[in-house]
Design brief:
11 helices, 544 residues
């Protein structure tokens, strides 16, 4: 990955063309690292994303849909107070450094014109976005830095100072031969440095390469050793295939899944931890219950020990830790542990009490084991769902746990609205629609409410996974294998081979009475064995 100064230069040029003179309509803090700013410019609605993530920091225009919190944070309210309704006067990059400076013209409550400044610093773990008055006094930052943290203070009331920058040459002012362009020139990431030197070794001119970079309005994404790299020109030194996209489309493409996983981690990290803990707690509980059941099933030994102690009371007295007596049930000798604090009669009664307790517990234990097994299966399913979940899927899993009483619901004053579940839709090359449920609420809705009776239902056998529904009455072998591959991919068997997948008509399915969401009873079905992989993504089109 290389969101370096050269990359930022092209991004800034695009921003100048697109959002300068634009009006800021709405501001959302979509995570602790990200701001989404809605701008109206040149008769278009535009979304500007500012990220100060320690690894994926950037500024870009985006066409993706982002979750917008219903309750704004105090920082969001402050930014809205100063910036909503204001106009973007200029957007500029500081030299070729990873710093963007935006001048904003707004008004105060007295309708006086006020100039604000936004500084977006894209500098790894030190990335930040700072809003200042025209005199440089900081109004607030996305990430505050106190005097105890750094000599460069970034918090309300302090005056903004540029970060300390290493003195480097501007590559557009002439070339000096060096084996490390990153240390010599502004804007060069190590990846770009290697690419330029590789091209020069193969006869290309430095100025010609710079011109290619400057004129590029594309992003070239490469996948090498299961890792993605990108830049404004093909990275030929990687010697791997690549795909080109328009600049901001490419950035969306590269960061979409990364951001989504990180957003889930930020917003629902406690949820994942809770599900894992509940799963482990029930596994431990099951072990204890099974041990108690084993002891209960062998409770006759307690009764025998009590009988033998009563038959040999004349041998017993306080202070004894054990006694060996003849077991008249099988004509062998038996050593019986004793509590030295009690006499023989009390020790015998204690064994009878253990026998009665174990006998009474048998039916209760079997019921508890069945319930605990069900809980283990349920939380195992949720763990699988969380692995494949989008942000919205994870929120629906949280809602499910709240509805079932596992988590406490937050009381809000908002008017209740029927929420639309975010079920993934795909279209095959034969124009057949395939729907995938990504959590239990979606699975339930998809199978028992959304699907037609003649649709075909797919699900992995005997393990957690998504419900996959194909909207077609008759399926050929290709579509059956495709849907089976999708069901296996979105399941716990994702990384296995020869995964069994059951499929059946929707009309043959039943929901167990009183069961948790996602449960299904099968009657008439067939089974296919499939090797899951993500190749199916090349055979279907995802419908937003």
């Amino acid at each position: 990955m290389a969101f370096d100064g050269i990359m930022l230069s092209n991004v800034t040029d695009k921003l100048k063309e697109t959002i300068e003179t634009g009006r800021i309509n709405k501001i959302y803090a979509i995570s602790k690292y990200e701001l989404l700013i809605h701008i109206r410019a040149h008769r278009q609605n535009i979304k500007l994303l500012i990220s100060i993530h320690p690894v994926y920091a950037r500024i870009q225009l985006s066409e993706l849909s982002y979750p917008t919190p219903t309750t704004p944070s105090s920082l969001t309210m402050l930014l809205r107070k100063h910036l909503e309704g204001a106009y973007i006067e200029t957007v500029e990059q500081i030299d070729l450094e990873r710093i963007v400076h935006m001048q904003i013209i707004g008004t105060n409550e007295f309708k006086d014109m006020i100039k604000y400044h936004i500084y977006i610093e894209i500098m790894g773990k030190h990335s930040n976005m700072i809003l200042t008055h025209d005199d440089g006094k900081i109004i607030d930052c996305l990430k505050r830095v106190s005097p105890s943290m750094s000599s460069r203070i970034l918090q309300p009331g302090a005056f903004y100072q540029m970060p300390p920058l290493i003195s480097k040459k501007n590559p557009y002012n002439g070339f000096i031969l060096t084996n490390n362009l990153t240390k010599t020139y502004q804007g060069f990431s190590p990846e770009l440095s290697r690419e330029v030197l590789f091209r020069m070794d193969h006869g290309e001119n430095f100025d010609d390469i710079l011109k290619l970079l400057h004129d590029s309005d594309s992003l070239f994404i490469h996948e090498s050793k299961q890792k993605e790299y990108f830049h404004l020109i093909p990275l030929t030194h990687l010697q791997c295939s690549y795909t080109s996209y328009p600049l901001f489309t490419g950035l969306d493409k590269h960061y979409e899944e990364i951001d989504q996983k990180d957003r889930i981690k930020q917003q629902t990290s406690d949820l994942g931890k809770y599900i894992k803990n509940e799963y482990q707690r029930n596994v431990v509980k099951l072990g204890k219950l099974q041990q108690t059941l084993f002891d209960s099933q062998n409770s006759d030994e307690y009764r025998i020990k009590g009988d033998l102690l009563f038959a040999n009371l004349h041998l017993l007295h306080k202070g004894m830790k054990e006694v060996t007596v003849e077991n008249y049930y099988d004509n062998t000798l038996m050593t019986i542990d004793l509590d030295e604090r009690y006499d023989g009669k009390t020790n015998a009664n204690k064994y009878y009490a253990k026998y009665q307790k174990a006998k009474n517990a048998l039916s209760h234990l079997e019921e508890q084991i069945a319930k605990t097994n069900e809980e283990i299966q349920y939380f195992d399913t949720l763990q699988t769902m969380m692995e494949n979940a989008s942000y919205y899927d994870a929120l629906e899993i949280k809602e499910e746990l709240e509805n079932l009483g596992y988590l406490k619901k937050k009381i809000t004053k908002q008017v209740h609205r029927n929420k639309k579940l975010h079920i993934e839709k795909y279209e095959t090359k034969d124009h057949i629609m395939i729907y995938v449920g990504k959590n239990n609420l979606q699975n339930d809705y998809l199978t028992f409410k959304m699907a037609s009776k003649s649709d075909m239902w797919f699900h992995v056998k005997d393990m957690p996974g998504s419900h996959v529904v194909v909207h077609s009455e008759e399926l050929d072998e290709y579509t059956i294998r495709l849907a089976s591959k999708m069901a296996a991919y979105f399941s716990k068997g994702k990384n296995s081979s020869s995964v069994p997948v059951n499929y059946a008509k929707i009309k043959t399915l039943k929901k167990p009475q009183g069961a948790k969401p996602g449960k299904v009873i099968l009657s008439h079905y067939a089974t296919i064995y499939i090797d899951p992989d993500d190749d199916f993504l090349n055979e279907v089109t995802k419908i937003d």
